[in-house]
Write the structure tokens for this entry.
Amino acid sequence: MHNEVQDIDVLVIEADAVRAETVKSALQFLGYRPHQDGHVAPADSGKRDWCAVYIGDVVDLDDFQRQLDTLGEQALHLPLLVAADSPLAAQLPGALPGSRSRPVELISFPLRYEPLMDALRRFAAPSRAAASKSAAGPSALHRLVGASAALGRVNALIRQVAPFDSNVLVLGESGTGKEMVARAIHENSQRRDKPFIAINCGAIPAELLESELFGHEKGAFTGAISSRKGRFELAEGGTLFLDEIGDMSLPMQVKLLRVLQERVFERVGGNRTQRCDVRIIAATHRNLEQAIADGGFREDLYYRLSVFPLEMPPLREHLEDMPELIGEFNQRLLRRGLSGVRFSASAMNALRSHTWPGNVRELCNLVERMAILYPSCEVRASDLPEKYRGIPAGEEVTGAALLALMEGRSPVVAPAMASEATAILPEGGLDLKDHLSDIEVGLIRQALDATGGVVAHAAKLLRMQRTTLVEKLRKYGLQTGLQVP
Ligand SMILES: Nc1ncnc2c1ncn2[C@@H]1O[C@H](COP(=O)(O)OP(=O)(O)OP(=O)(O)O)[C@@H](O)[C@H]1O
Ligand SMILES: [Mg+2]
């Protein structure tokens, strides 16, 4: 089974904490997603499609074997990155279970990006070929959903521009789906059976970007021990997605402009001019017209790239797509073997009033977070992280108020009453029953917190029978870990 982050998860097995950090940050820098057991190792290890395992200092062989076991069948053939000084390096491949033909790359320390990147690329080459053959790239799994007028316009533009080879410039705030659109254009074009290659121009240091894009010849610079293809060559016949183009340095912009105009380039350190047939889709969250005015972006390059500009709407302008987006993200979770999650009417109302600075990506992350906390449950407004709750949650019951209640006196002001009195009916109305349940759950939780989970005391604080509270706890599934004397 493929998962949404196919090809980027790397398991890091390294007993040396400092070295583990170095390896993880290098992998992250190169666009991979490192996981280390005991820190962020996901519980669903066996269900992920790992792209490689890094093996460094292995102190305890049993522990090592246990970590490999969590990967299930995959452990037998996954590519290995092995620290050249790892105790296992000398015994490879006999020391490890599984296929003798699996790819193994030795990594030397001090760690350098180039050899690490080359090793990972060699691993990726066969799977990339397979992916393009079956056309099962992430976009085949990720549907661009949304029936709003705003998304309808985006879809129409994708269909219109896809069949032509025109350059496309995708604009929009962070997390609005720019990369998804680039993939959708590729998938709907004649080039769909050829590679879709993405590069984040903002994440790669300026001095490395040229060789990343155009490749280099052996000996072109220190560390260039062999010649290598760049992304233009890798994308031949297909599409090259230049993400965060607004972050590209001015000298690189000049070099890119030449390729766009003449369709030729040379590798770094090479003198052979090569032709290329690559469709360019660029994206940025920056305002390029402003960047041009400020002298940070070349106007001639802008006009070359923006033959067909496509503006992604921010989520706050197509909130009506939220239920469908949540449905899509649930589907993705299910494909990864995780549980989905539902949102109550009150939770949906609260989400509609959030401003979504992180847009669709933020929503996607929230759905995943809620699905982990409340697998297969209905999430209420009061279960949402505070910033999504909309109406500020009632203040906590203070010690003095609690004491007053326990002694049978009335506290001066009950904070919840104040918020009830000012509750505002949202424009689109609300599900009153659901809303009242939310308030009830919120107050019960606060009462339990304030009384250290002692149900009898919480019942007193809420002025209800202990048995009634116990019933409500059962109804709302709140009874775990409580002291019910
Ligand atoms: N209309 C949509 N339908 C389904 N998923 C979407 C949609 N728009 C965005 N997404 C999802 O939201 C996440 C962010 O999308 P994407 O990476 O394409 O955004 P981006 O604009 O490139 O973000 P950034 O600026 O952070 O790079 C991805 O998981 C993507 O699948
Ligand atoms: Mg992006």
User: Anything to note?
Assistant: DSSP finds 19 helices and 14 strands in the chain.
